[in-house]
């Protein structure tokens, strides 16, 4: 049996609207998923935002991406992408190269060390996905994905 949000957050009064309940349910679910991911990544010394940036740079391949492209592709917005990339560079997980023609243009690439770290994390991350969402049927997952996309584009 599923737990009702009202019970989870110990709310005694009814929600003001179905929209309010849905919004809070999405927030609560996101918080649960983000916490599980953060806990799994902690063992590897990276935050969810750092993991996301590394995953993006792995997908970009050897050509890398500029800071703005990384920022635009992040799942969750972060206030300072430059600082995020600084931390990854200090850890040896990414490298940055300033353009020769336009010195303002800086390309960020994942390093071999960053790729190895992602390889180590792939299975634990996949296990979190299975544990969090694996109990849903394929059709339910498709419906969930479609509904969340519809919410994001409203």
What does this structure look like?
The protein has 154 residues and is mainly alpha-helical. 62% of the residues lie in helices and 8% in strands. It has a three-stranded antiparallel beta sheet. Helix 2 crosses helix 6. The chain is elongated and about 60 Å long. The model has no long low-confidence stretch (mean pLDDT 91).
Which value, in Å, is the CA radius of gyration?
19 Å
Say how many strands there are. 3
Q: Note the run of SSEs as H and E.
A: HHHEHHEEHH
**Main sheet summary:** 3 strands, antiparallel
Helix/sheet category: mainly alpha
Q: Which runs of at least 5 residues are low in confidence (pLDDT < 50)?
A: none
Give me the number of helical elements. Answer: 7
| Measured distance between first and last alpha carbons | 31 Å
Task: Output the strand order for the largest sheet.
Answer: 1-3-2
Mean pLDDT: 91
Report strand %: 5-15%
Judging from the principal axes of the Cα atoms, what is the shape? elongated
The proportion of residues forming helix, as a percent range, comes to 55-70%
Key features of this structure:
8% strand; 154 residues; single chain; 7 helices; mainly alpha; 3-stranded antiparallel β-sheet; elongated
